[in-house]
């Protein structure tokens, strides 16, 4: 049974044959994401009432999952923050760093003679959809190592099932969709989950130039604080309907800006979305306020928290010619310049079958 904070359509992929051990070594990567506008309207209890819309992009910060055959009767798991070597008949570990990997083994049926390792440049809890990227990468690696190649839609749904259905992590579905599909996407949501996945950069569209300009001006500032987005969301009070409409309006403006080739419209929509998120959750936006103070007067046109807030990353956008002063002001933080419009989950390497 799903509660108000979980997806209604998350589901595992049907496995056509019983699988217990991987057949080959496979390395998979999946991207993290940034949303430009509408974040939070993908939450089921919001989308059920008003519909939801999120416009954003997969970014070139990727999580890698490596699956390979291991000694029969044993399972080896490794992830940032923890690892375990256990007998396959032992109960699944419930360590916070390993629960996701254990759940991925459970839904795919690959649970004996397997090694699964997650590696990432940015650990989950950074506001960039890192846990979903890890889930999608792990699921694709396990299935590819067993001779199956699911579609992006199937991957996104199964990842949502793992995070919402198995682990009961509160949240919406945008993160696994960006991780599975990649690209710059205009997503719509209803009471049943994701209702539409529309690539923004289609052939002949005017969006490519806007995406390039966005990428040139974007900075991701790492606050160094990590938190579980589901915990942040569960502590949040019911959203103000006016805030939700502001978020939806901002997402529509960003989508319109891409369609019309207008960077100005996209930036204005991002500003509107940032203001609405700050109004909805002032406490979770404190790291954003600190960074906004540091860059005040240095030409930043957008400063907004990424993800659920409370830490993680803060997105700063300004024309590239203003970056020198901004980077000087941000020198005590780690600053990343992400690539936008990157591919979704993909197999990077495949070994011979055993």
TrEMBL record:
<protein>
    <submittedName>
        <fullName>D,D-heptose 7-phosphate kinase</fullName>
    </submittedName>
</protein>
<feature type="domain" description="GHMP kinase N-terminal">
    <location>
        <begin position="100"/>
        <end position="183"/>
    </location>
</feature>
<dbReference type="InterPro" id="IPR013750">
    <property type="entry name" value="GHMP_kinase_C_dom"/>
</dbReference>
<dbReference type="Pfam" id="PF08544">
    <property type="entry name" value="GHMP_kinases_C"/>
</dbReference>
<dbReference type="InterPro" id="IPR020568">
    <property type="entry name" value="Ribosomal_Su5_D2-typ_SF"/>
</dbReference>
<keyword id="KW-0418">Kinase</keyword>
<keyword id="KW-0547">Nucleotide-binding</keyword>
<keyword id="KW-0067">ATP-binding</keyword>
<dbReference type="GO" id="GO:0016301">
    <property type="term" value="F:kinase activity"/>
</dbReference>
<feature type="domain" description="GHMP kinase C-terminal">
    <location>
        <begin position="256"/>
        <end position="331"/>
    </location>
</feature>
<dbReference type="InterPro" id="IPR036554">
    <property type="entry name" value="GHMP_kinase_C_sf"/>
</dbReference>
<keyword id="KW-0808">Transferase</keyword>
<dbReference type="Pfam" id="PF00288">
    <property type="entry name" value="GHMP_kinases_N"/>
</dbReference>
<dbReference type="InterPro" id="IPR006204">
    <property type="entry name" value="GHMP_kinase_N_dom"/>
</dbReference>
<dbReference type="GO" id="GO:0005524">
    <property type="term" value="F:ATP binding"/>
</dbReference>
<dbReference type="InterPro" id="IPR001174">
    <property type="entry name" value="HddA/FKP"/>
</dbReference>
